């Protein structure tokens, strides 16, 4: 699988995750979101999660937070307590995994649970 953007082919693994996180751009994020389906136009809340996930991965020893951690950190950022339902409304196929895909990060190999 690959994404096409501005005449350039961006390579992915078999599950649609970028092979190189440095190929990512905000424009590509919307292309990935469109390909995922169910996400729609990226909103400020989407971008908060995407930028948070990229920052954690690129600046915190390749950390890939789980859904519970994302929920807690977004509550701090937004000043309100979002629910899991709120997070799944943004990224229906799992915020940590689908959000990471849209953020251009490698596929998480983390097991489930907390």
UniProtKB/TrEMBL annotation:
EC number: 2.8.1.-
Gene Ontology biological process terms in this record: tRNA wobble position uridine thiolation
SUPFAM superfamilies per record: DsrC, the gamma subunit of dissimilatory sulfite reductase
Main enzyme class: transferase
GO CC entries: cytoplasm
InterPro entries for the chain: DsrC-like_C, DsrC-like_dom_sf, DsrC-like_N, DsrC/TusE
Main localization, broad class: cytoplasm
UniProt-recorded Gene Ontology molecular function terms: sulfur carrier activity; transferase activity
Localisation per UniProt entry: Cytoplasm
UniProt superkingdom: Bacteria
Keyword Cytoplasm in record: yes
Tagged with keyword Cytoplasm: yes
Annotated keywords: Cytoplasm, Transferase
Region called Disordered, residue ranges: 86-114
Any single Pfam family the record assigns to this protein: DsrC
Family indicated by similarity: Belongs to the dsrC/tusE family.
Matching NCBIfam families: dsrC_tusE_dsvC
Role, per record: Part of a sulfur-relay system.
Protein's recorded name: Sulfurtransferase
Organism: Thiohalobacter thiocyanaticus
Name of the encoding gene: tusE
């Amino acid at each position: 699988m690959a994404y096409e953007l501005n005449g350039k082919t961006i390579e992915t693994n078999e599950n649609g995750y970028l092979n190189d996180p440095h190929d990512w751009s905000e424009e590509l994020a919307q292309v990935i979101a469109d390909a995922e389906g169910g996400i729609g136009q990226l909103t400020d809340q989407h971008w908060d999660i995407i930028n948070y996930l990229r920052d954690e991965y690129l600046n915190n020893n390749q950390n890939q937070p789980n859904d519970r951690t994302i929920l807690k950190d977004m509550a701090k950022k937004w000043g309100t307590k979002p629910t899991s339902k709120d997070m799944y409304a943004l990224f229906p196929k799992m915020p940590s995994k689908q959000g990471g895909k849209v953020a251009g990060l490698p596929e998480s190999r983390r097991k489930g649970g907390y």
